[in-house]
Structures are given as structure tokens and as C-alpha cells.
Design goal:
With about 425 residues, the protein is of the alpha/beta class. The protein is built from 14 helices and 14 strands. About 45% of the residues are buried. It has two domains: about 170 residues, Alpha-Beta Complex (Aspartate Aminotransferase, domain 1); about 240 residues, Aspartate Aminotransferase, domain 2. Helix content is about 40%, strand content about 15%. Helix 6 packs parallel to helix 7. An eight-stranded mixed sheet has the order 2-9-8-7-6-3-4-5, sandwiched between helices. Strands 10-11-14-13 form a four-stranded antiparallel sheet. Bound molecules: pyridoxal-5'-phosphate (PLP).
Length: about 425
Amino acid sequence: MRTNIVHPGADSLRYEIRQIVEVAKAIEASGQVIHWENIGDPVAKGETPPLWIREIVAAAASEASSFAYSPTRGLEEARVYIAGERNLEGGIQIGADDILFFNGLGDAISTIYGALHPRARVIGPNPAYPTHSSAEAAHAGSPHLTYRLDPGNGWRPDLADLETQIRANPQIAGIIIINPDNPTGFVYPEETLAAMVEIARRHGLFIISDEIYSNLAFPDSGMRKLAAVVGDVPAIAMRGISKEFPWPGARCGWIEIYNRDADPSFARFARSLLEAKMLEVCATTLPQKVLPRVMGDPRYTPYLAGRVDAYAERARRAAEVLADIPELIVHPAQGAFYMTAVFRSGALQPGQSLAAPTATEAIIRPHLGSALDARFVYHLLAATGVCVVPLSTGFNSDLHGFRFTLLEPDAARFEGLLRQLRDAVMNYLSSAS
Ligand SMILES: Cc1ncc(COP(=O)(O)O)c(C=O)c1O
């Protein structure tokens, strides 16, 4: 090329959660069975959306109007339904025009960070869900700024660290909260959320609250949506159907804009999101059509409750099994369907490995970089076929650990997986030469 066509932020766009799949596929081709614990897709892991939901989708798909474009903001019936539900829960009240549909939250996330002023930064949690952190870093052409979620304190955010970073970086304009959190399964207590809102108010910031797992918070987790505590602070809440129905292949998510008029710059920013969507015309119509019919069905709440109970039980069991390893910090998830295990400082050493067949060992060798948790993850894959995601390279973290899912629906297989994980960690840690 006579001129460089690569965006300065291109190297920030890395999604280890899927990148590890290429290596795992090569291992699978060598005959090893792979246990896919890396991707948060309940359907791919064997959960079948119930027949009644599939029947609603089938009926909507047979209506000619499902083949049409929808209005740019999204179908009126879907937005009215969501706004009505939101307002019934109490907290901030919104109208249908405060909602904007996207082709999944992945689309919303890249649109939001892409629309920010190039010098405005949004600080997010560490560990970080990479779609947020990569898109924010790519927008700024500079590493993502983070505040600590503290594994030594049940994954609570370090609010002193957050405020120090905000003071030190005047270009920070917003705070990202993921609640329930991916990758930790942490649910923010109401007082912590309120304290973060107060920090945003004090420093003139807006909040982005990714609540895609909010209806998958476990009983007794104390889950509160940002809407309950946001008061008059400008904010964007994000929700979707990928994890709830679950229908990740629908590519359907939406944002809810709170206190748009509290700040003229925020109001203009919010309008720019609508304008960006107008250029694309609209999000996919069919899932929006289905949304109020499924969420408004009396079978929906009991259906979600059954799934959540199963995840909560798996989280309890995972914490119990992995508690056998003193070098790991593990907290049971309080929501969503992931858990993260962190290696205590000094537990991982460069010389550690796991006995693996020669063929799979050869496949992982070129991928063994310097990140000690990624080395563990690749050795685990070669030795056992269990595919998890390293914390440092997968979730933009200075912690070493791995994320696994709570999605295996077969109880015996889930138990086997936990034991395999526990034994592999123990063998790996004791293999140091
Ligand atoms: C926290 C979080 N936000 C957003 C997404 C993306 O969701 P969607 O399927 O709506 O693009 C995910 C997917 O795993 C997620 O974990």
C-alpha cells in the first residue's frame, strides 16, 4: 500500500475467547475431544430454548411484516414493552424513545465507543470483558484504562483506585460497569453501585452499565439495576436477549438512555448514536417482534428461575471443588454463568507443564507466549481438551487465572469437568522443575 491503511488501534482488537478456538480446533482434528468452556453461548453448550419460545419465533417468522425494515430506534411495540417493564421496576422512568436497538450488544458497544470524541476515555473494570475494553482502546488508539475488581475482596471494585484513576486522567468521561460481571460472576451490591454513581456525579462523568446478565442474577445476589440508583446522572444501560432467551444468534440488544437532558454534551452524544444507527437503517426486525411476546409470556419468569437455579448450584459446586487448591482464589458466581479462578502470586512458574500426547503438545508449542496463565491454559487444552480462557490475555488483566463457564447441562459431565480442572491445576503447579 502506498499509504498505511491500518488503524492505529488495530492491535487493540483481540478476542482471545474466540482466538483460542483455532488452536482447539487443530487439537480436535488430532483426535482429542474438546470441552468447550470458553464461549458464553448456552445453546452451543446444549441448552435448548423451550418449545414455546421457538413456537413464538416460528409464528413471528411466518408474518410478512417480519421481513420488513424496522424504525431506526427499533419496533415501537418492543420499545414500549421494555420501557413499561423498566418503569414498573421503579427507579428512573423512561419513554420508548429512550431505547435504541442494535444488532446485539457487540454492535452497540462498537457504535458507542466509535462515536466518542477521540480524546474522551471510558474507564472499565479489570478483569475486563474484551468487547468493551478492546473497542474503547481501539477508539482511543491507546491501552484501555481500568479500575481493579479485587479477588481478595470477593471481586468488589476498588473504589479508591477508581477515583485515583479518574483524578489522574482528566480525559476520563465515563465509567463502565458490567453487572452481573463477565468474567467473574460478581454482582454489585446496591451500596457499591450507589457509590459509583456518586463518583460519576462528583466528577461530571456518565455511566455505561452492561446489564446483559441482569435477569440471570442468582437469588439472594442482591442484584439491582443501575436504573434503581442512577438518580440524575447521565447513563446508558445495555440489555439483550443473547443470554436470556437464550438467542445469541438473533444478534439483538438495546440501550436505554437515562437523563439524556442532564448534560448538553451527553444529549448530543446520545443523538449521535441514533444518527449512526440511521446510516445502517435499523437492527434486525424478527427478534424485536418476538421480544414482547416472549418476555410478556407467563412462562418466561419461571423458565428463567429454573435456569438461574441450575447455574447457582453449579457455581456453588465449582467453588467447593476448586477450594481444595490453596494457590487458587475462587469465589462462587452470584450471577451470569461464568467463574474466574485466580492463581495466587508466585504460584505459576515458567517451567510448569502437563503431560500431553506428542501431537497436541506440538500444536500448542508455537502459542506458548510469556503470559504464565495463558501457558497454563494451552497446556490444559493439550493435556485434557478442556478449553478455558486465560485472564491476562483474554480479559486485559494483570491478574493470572482463567475463566470457565457454568453452562454444561449434564450434571455428571460438569462434575467430571471440575475434577479434571482441579487435578490439572494441582499437577501443573507441582510440575515446576
Ligand atoms: C458483558 C457482555 N456484554 C455484551 C456481550 C455481547 O452480547 P451480544 O450477543 O448482544 O452481542 C456479551 C457476550 O458475551 C457479554 O458477556
